[in-house]
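Quick question, first post here. What does this chain look like in 3D?
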Amino acid sequence: MIKEKEKNKMSVGEMWTQLWSSLAGLMFIWAMFKQYCPHEMEGHLKKYTQKLVSLFYPNIEVKFHEFTSESFHERSKAYGAIQRYLTTNSTTRAKRLKADMVRDSKSLVLSMDDYEEILDEFKGIKVWWSSKKNISRSRVISFYGDEEKRFYKLKFHRRHREIVFGSYLNHVMEEGKAMEVKSRERKLYTNNRNEQLTGRYQRTMWSSVVFEHPATFDTLAMEEKKKKEIMNDLITFTKSKDYYKKIGKSWKRGYLLFGPPGTGKSTMIVAMANLLEYDVYDLELTAVKDNTELRKLLIDTSNKSIIVIEDIDCSLDLTGQRKKEAKDKEGDGKDPVRKKKKEDQGKSNESSKVTLSGLLNFIDGLWSACGGERIIVFTTNYVEKLDPALIRRGRMDKHIELSYCCFEAFKVLARNYLDLESHDLFETIGKLLEETKISPADVAENLMLKSDDEDAADACLANLIKAIEKAKEEAKVKAEEEEKEKERAKAEEEKKAKAEKEEKEKAEKEEKDKEKEGEQKSDEEVKKKKTAGEEVKENGNHKYCFLIKEKEKNKMSGGEMLTQLWSSLAGLMFVWAMFKQYCPHEVEGHLKKYTQKLVSLIYPYIEVTFHEFTSESFYDRSKAYGAIQRYLTTNSTTRAKRLKADMVRDSKSLVLSMDDYEEILDEFNGIKVWWASNKNIPRSQVISFYGDEEKRFYKLKFHRRHREIVFGSYLNHVMDEGKAIEVKSRKRKLYTNNRNEQWAGRYQRTMWSSVVFDHPATFDTLAMEEEKKKEIMNDLITFTKSKDYYKKIGKSWKRGYLLFGPPGTGKSTMIVAMANLLEYDVYDLELTAVKDNTELRKLLIETSNKSIIVIEDIDCSLDLTGQRKKKEEKDEEGDGKDPVSKKKKEDQEKSNESSKVTLSGLLNFIDGLWSACGGERIIVFTTNYVEKLDPALIRRGRMDKHIELSYCCFEAFKVLARNYLDLESHDLFETIGKLLEETKISPADVAENLMLKSDDEDAADACLANLIKAIEKAKEEAKVKAEEEEKEKERAKAEEEKKAKAEKEEKEKAEKEEKDKEKEGEQKSDEEVKKKKTAGEEVKENGV
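> Answer (accepted):
Ran it through. Tokens below.
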């Protein structure tokens, strides 16, 4: 017995050896089975195994894959709906989560992490949801790398089959869709000229940007009664699905908005979209090739949307009606904006073949029933010029006129802008509004608060009264000019009629003279015919492990122990490798799930994962990951022991962050959380186009009792701080637009090229009067702090500045000073490189917030106004004196051949629907000739502040002297001041003369002396130029007099020659009469 026990004790090592040998053999057999077993046999084994398990396993399982076999590039709508539905349960019950800024969502979206399971209850039954993934282990050549196939699994008892399939799944889908609508970011779309890849390999004909314009019906300047009528009409439409079905009509409604410019047509569309929470599709008809492309665009639009065609009468020549009446030509002649729009329309017709029939079918034909719950909106300034077939009831169901500002509309604006319900000046304003036509946009601009003073509201109302009185006076002057124009035209017509009458009388007289002469001749011929006996006649035609420990090895030698140890480890690693390679996904998933459940019983912490790249977009870095990285920078440098550093793109300095597998502590409102930086390295045998990329992620860990604080406010705090740090630490850029999209960053295309913007100009160095500088700076700073104010008044957070004045007066320097004061990026838009309105919108989409969009020399960028053709003589005279302007006009004519940007497109870019694209933007126009700009382009509401930068004055000179020479005063200042009052010289010329050329002590004196000489020279040149201009005028006058005299002499000479010819003709006729008489007498005598 003792010997047998010793023998058994001695055989422990052998037992371990046999165990690992058996396991290794088992795994080898399993590997061979997986590798060489026919698919049919493997399928049968799985089928009968599952049948055997189902005999004692009472649950039913349903899988919902992220991507289906039907569409590998488009995420399953069911998967998305389930993800949104489970968000609430995930945040309250799950212990391991993942988070990301999901596309089209307003905020951070939390969902279950892989292999996590949560419980849901519905009508007294319990169901379990779990999140899983499959990772391919086969050798694959992949373009996108080792993609994980994720899916949700729903588990429930088989006795609940009918409830789950009958109503629970429908409940999940409906709740998921409702949460999507509630949490989604609404979009503003514009059509592309061609299909483009976007998102996860999807092709689309629309480009989009987040739509967050603050305008509502509460902020809309309109009579309350009319507002309620429109709102009731819209709400009734959204609730009328069954009614439209009952009457057999597609669920869509048309609205025609018409009225003068600035009356709120675009704002009305925004208010409609915000009321109904619809997306907006702004259709640019000029970019649509043909009717087929128009239908494709309609197919790509979503339900719950507003399709907008602005300026329908000028988008394409679809009606043919404008060519009928001569009155239209007369109206267009008086309206240069209208005239230019027609010229733009003519160009667009060359590339677009959309017909009136195609557009009508789009509105209410077969294709109008494509989708449902859609609103179609047309806008126009001239409703009378639209074809009746286009706007009849059934197509445009409701016609809404938006006219000039009335007293009711003014009271809405006063309440929104000034928080005033009544004021002593209201009565005066009411009377003026009855007598004067002024748009709500002009009224709103005068009510915009420029400061926080107590008297600011009074000042705004006073300014408004002045503006209305000015508009009244301008209207009166315009009416007088029109009357004079009519009288002049009438006088010209009378003069023309008189000249025609005289010409007619003269012609009649000549005709009579010819008739008399003919009669005389005919009498003679008759006589001849009678005499000779002869007669004559005449006759006239548009993309497991497990671990085993040995307890008794005391009787074994050290060598045997080591041998057994390494043998066991080798066997264990072999078994683990075989397990990872050939273990079915279902078994592996179950092991991970139940291991995590076991751990969660004793582990009190919740973990949230933030991946660098998500399954939705492998090329676009997660915004949440970037914000966290920037937020953790400060903690990393003060607490982490292992860091990594890099010069991050668009950052001013070296950026430090946690190294991989490092963990740091953060505190917020008395609670502690831990952040860790981790990465996953794929070990599968995959040949990837992008290589074996590491999948990095941040992991947030916190105690479960702090769940509400973390999900309620901490994560939002992290996101906001991260974004603020990004703005503060970034390098500011100067951008220019490319002619075509280019690759930039990580697989991204961009339409802008950039360079670091580090110009040193500031308002301190700007040559301008101190008071004017402070006014502009206060206006800019007030704008940056007015986000809530703009939202309150329902206006997009942007402001326009018009900088005008002679060359060299500091317009470009002013833009730099503005950018440096506000720390904004600058987008220098070259209009001549923009193909059309669609490309202009794409450029706007790609601009960032906190930026200044600049169009320099707006009057010469493109011929957008058509106004300069009015006074050709004055322009030719001005251009003859200004060769720079003349050259710019020649370049402009060339650029017009390749660019089809229209005035309507540019106006929409400034203050239409697209002006709300993003926020905190400034738009700046510069020009040397403000009088040549179209009033529609620079009216208040578009260019809110007009800043004149003129020639150098004494205040501006003192700034330059302080900057360039460090002088506050000097004996020569008085002389220079007097000269500057008498002479026009630009700040650029003054600055050049104040530039130090050496380090001598007397350099400043020399500079001032040179400046005096330069001003005196400019004064002399101006005098000589004035004399030459006077001589030129006298010479031109003399030439005109000489020309008039020559014309008079030529006329007199012609008249004299005409008289001489007439006399000569009379003499000839007399002689012929005499000859005929003599011949007749001879004939008579001969006859006798």
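Residues 596 and 602 are 10 Å apart (CA to CA).
Residues 320-334, 532-555, 866-881 have pLDDT under 50 and may be disordered.
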